[in-house]
Amino acid sequence: MGLYGMMRTGVSGMAAQSNRLSTVADNIANSSTNGYKRAKAEFSSLVLPSSGGSYNSGGVTTSIRYEISKSGPLQYTTSGTDLAIEGNGFFVVQGTNGQPFLTRAGSFVPNADGELVNAAGYKLMGYSYANGVPAVTANGYAGLEAVTIAQSELVATPSRNGTLTANLPSSSDVVAAADLPSANAATAQYTHKTSLVAYDNLGGKQLLDVYMTKTGADTWEVAVYDRADAAPNTSFPYANPALATTTLTFDPTNGKLDGASPTDIALTVPGGDTLTIDLSDMTQLDTGFSVTGEVDGSAPYAIDSVEISEDGTIFAQYADGSRRALYRIPLANVQSPDQLKVITGNVFSESADSGGVQLGFSGTGGLGKVTPGAVERSNVDIATELTDMIEAQRNYTANSKSFQTGSELMELLVNLKR
Questions:
Q1: What distance, in Å, lies between the first and last C-alpha atoms of the chain?
Q2: pLDDT of res. 319
Q3: Does residue 401 register a pLDDT over 90?
Q4: pTM
Q5: Which residues form the Flagellar hook protein FlgE/F/G-like D1 domain (predicted)?
Q6: Measured between alpha carbons, how far is 63 from 48 in angstroms, rounded to an integer?
């Protein structure tokens, strides 16, 4: 091919170095972009077949690679919804067209609809606790939804679980069967009484009267009534039967519940859900009466703040101090992260060379750990980029010299004909 081939090779070299300079320019421009992954130009030779006595110069071709698997440094922030990943994995986000993508850019803030979005407008995806404790879909995005936190929304949590712990004095007198609280007679008697506050489905407080009455040697009746049904200025008779009753039996050798005794009592909160009260720590010892109790649930409260744990669980912190799990954020990964397709906005999508996406939770299956209150910075090193820029500039100049030399020789050949 001679001088024309030499000139084409010079042009090929200049084009390759131009591509390298373009990646350097992109890297420098995005050196402060959260989650940005450094681009680099990889060169490979183009060889043309040569015959004896002549050499056909080829050229160089450029492949652009991204250092997606190389993590950038973490920078801690004051925002509780900023997220970073320490180790392998990507957050799953959703574009405006509903298509899922992967990203390491975790600076999320609520938009007008309460959805957590990053700087490029991609919505963070997670599994909701609305239908129970979420389980991951290992090989796809099914079940994921946009994480939405409406802080103006009032949320009430009905009571479902509680505990009641009391010491029932072993020296207490036995109450006759006809006068037990479960009979709900005007002459009813009891040994000890306490009350518990529970919450109905609308967050209303329901006061429950709990009667503990000795019925025999080492046996006690526990009866629960709705305070709203109590007779005016008294207790018995209540307008309706007991919400639940049970009989506890104690082991006389240690004062704890024996193996045949019930360990809880279940009832339906008026206007609410089924409440199960744990009684397993009740005792019958020769000392005074003492009692403690707790019931979950809450009155209607707005979300005061959002808290994200290292396992990816998003909790709503309410004004009353209670909190509730809303979502759990999964992490995604592929076999070859550096082969992912790069999309505008620091997001990536699967390609034929990257392998299929696999999802899991923070810290499981080789995935990294979610770090709340931090963001991952760009993995670009400015010093390296400036060095590459100088090297690419020198190489570009050298390639232009070979093109210039070929051009001058070609001009010399043309002038020989004159």
A1: 23
A2: 74
A3: no
A4: 0.67
A5: 84-151
A6: 19
